[in-house]
Amino acid sequence: MEDLERVKELKAFDETKLGVKGLVDAGITKIPRIFYQPRDSTKKASELGHTTIVPVIDLANIEKDPFARKRVVESIRDASETFGFFQIVNHGIPVSTLEEMKDGVKSFFEQDSEVKKEFYTREHKPFMHYSNIALYTAPAATWKDSFLCNMAPIPPKPEDLPVVCRDILLEYLSQVKKVGTLLFELLSEALGLNSTYLTDIGCAEGFYAFGHYYPPCPEPELTLGTSKHVDVVFLTLLLQDHVGGLQYLHRDMWIDVPPMPEALIVNIGDFLQLITNDKFKSVHHRVPANLVGPRVSIASFFGTLHHPTTRTFGPIKELLSDENSAKYKETSFPKFMDSYITKCNKGTSPRLHFKN
């Protein structure tokens, strides 16, 4: 009976097409039960008196100075093996473009509700707006609204995108695609491989982005902005605003990733951990709900979502040896994603289902 009531509440919320922002605009002071998240006993590093620095890697001059490139490759290797998270500066995207993109995300969610509703859907489209991608399957809803823009392998037509953020979305994501391609070169070199290795095997073929809007929450202790999860892709590049809030798990502590206006946050995806045979680490991360807001971010993912490929991936053979045998079976993106959707609704890693 309780389950039926919950489904009814979820459906009623979804059918408003107004998302979490609609609840806040209506002036609620108590959050609906569908948003109640299970308690997490893991402490923040700051609460335990630990100061863990999130590595910041400067990409300046790496195309011209071989010593600078060598230093950056070593830093990326260390960060990818130890933390799974790092920030990059001097990546080539102007701060003005980053600021415009954050404003574009905010403008989309704060435009007239009737215009925004036209994009609200759960059908696969080049651009989709909704609240909670896994609304009907996750144990609890999260306190955010999102849009999804599929960029590659099939780019959207400009008319598929909302006018309010169309130009900056196309401009920003085309620049992020270039930065991602550069990062795959550096990651290839960090693995001791030819610089084009990861792009040659298809790591940069699929590309999509989520714009997230986290309204202020009247009871932030009861819910989360984004629940604990791993990214089911090769690589993620995230732009977060001045509010911050992103945390990743390191040595059983939540580490805050401080906002830097000129930086992009990079994190290793679960599929990259699989093909590097656990050399690079994909780690859990989350975003708590917050009394202040709104918070906006845009996460760009290298992987495929609605354009499945039959290409299979397994641990890179050049990294294997008698002492380092393959820890995972070969699999495809659709199978990996399916495992995540059907077996990992509490945020666990789908990699565990492909262990040898």
From TrEMBL:
InterPro entries: DIOX_N, IPNS-like_FE2OG_OXY, IPNS-like_sf, Oxoglu/Fe-dep_dioxygenase_dom. It comes from the Eukaryota. Gene3D superfamilies: B-lactam Antibiotic, Isopenicillin N Synthase, Chain. Residues 205-304 form the Fe2OG dioxygenase domain. GO terms for molecular function: desacetoxyvindoline 4-hydroxylase activity; metal ion binding. Its cofactor is Fe cation. Its EC number is 1.14.11.20. Keywords: Iron, Metal-binding, Oxidoreductase. Belongs to the iron/ascorbate-dependent oxidoreductase family. PANTHER family: AMINOCYCLOPROPANECARBOXYLATE OXIDASE, OXIDOREDUCTASE, 2OG-FE II OXYGENASE FAMILY PROTEIN. This is 1-aminocyclopropane-1-carboxylate oxidase. It comes from Medicago truncatula. The lineage of its organism: Eukaryota, Viridiplantae, Streptophyta, Embryophyta, Tracheophyta. The gene is 11419853.
